Amino acid sequence: MNFVVGVTGSIAAYKACELVREFVKAGHEVRVVMTKSACEFVTPLTFRTLSKNPVAVTLFEQNAENWMPAHIELANFADAFVIAPCTANVLGKLAHGIADDALTATFLANKAPVLIAPSMNVNMWENSATQANVSLLEQRGINFIDPDSGDLACGVNAKGKLPAPSAIAAAAIAIAQKSKESK
Ligand SMILES: Cc1cc2nc3c(=O)[nH]c(=O)nc-3n(C[C@H](O)[C@H](O)[C@H](O)COP(=O)(O)O)c2cc1C
């Protein structure tokens, strides 16, 4: 199956490398789309090498081989779109239909099932704006894998950790399979 992995500017972005490896190891094709902030944490080159595919970061890049913009190409490619880790900022954009970068534009153009794995500081997670954004997206049929509790990068033991990449991959594969079977 074809998975699009969206990576955002969270300290947990490095775990998305392992997530891509999980999909590749299981024989799936992976394309990665990153926000500009995500590139502060992990480089596109890392994902390009792990996925053996080009990585989308900007909407306006010219690709000599393909006339189609990356967000449309990725949306057409996906059997499932997994955003892991997903920042509070991207949750807000997705809940309100904002599409001002390659990742959020792919989300709007995409019709495949979506799995979001939020990861952030516990206060950001518990903020009523974040919780309202999660509820809105859930009402629209978006799947979530809740953050785990544990030691956070900000030095507290609380909810906000990205779940294990193997658990995210298993949930995404199950969602993609279920959607394929229902067609
Ligand atoms: C060291 C560091 C770690 C961060 N970790 C997170 C995080 O885990 N989750 C989150 O929502 N924001 C986190 N942020 C804040 C985001 O990077 C910031 O909101 C950024 O604008 C997100 O951009 P994006 O949503 O386009 O990727 C962190 C910022 C810094 C400097």
Biggest sheet features: 6 strands, parallel
CATH topology: Rossmann fold
What is the rounded distance between the termini?
15 Å
Oligomeric state of shown chains: single chain
- Uncertain segments of ≥5 residues (pLDDT<50)? none
Helix run count: 8
Question: What is the overall shape?
Answer: globular
According to CATH, the homologous superfamily is Flavin prenyltransferase-like
Small ligands present: flavin mononucleotide
Helix/strand/pairing class, anyone?
Answer: alpha/beta
Number of E-state strands: 8
Description of the structure:
The structure is a single chain. The mean pLDDT is 95. This protein has helices at residues 15-25, 44-51, 70-77, 88-95, 102-109, 122-126, 128-139, 165-181, and strands spanning 2-7, 29-34, 55-56, 80-86, 114-118, 143-144, 148-151, 157-161. It is of the alpha/beta class and 183 residues long. It is 42% helix and 20% strand. It has a single domain (2-181), classed as 3-Layer(aba) Sandwich (Rossmann fold), CATH 3.40.50. The chain contains eight helices and eight strands. The strands form two sheets. Strands 3-2-1-4-5-6 form a six-stranded parallel beta sheet, sandwiched between helices. Bound molecules: flavin mononucleotide. Residues 8-12, 35, 37-38, 87-90, 119-120, 124 line the site of flavin mononucleotide.
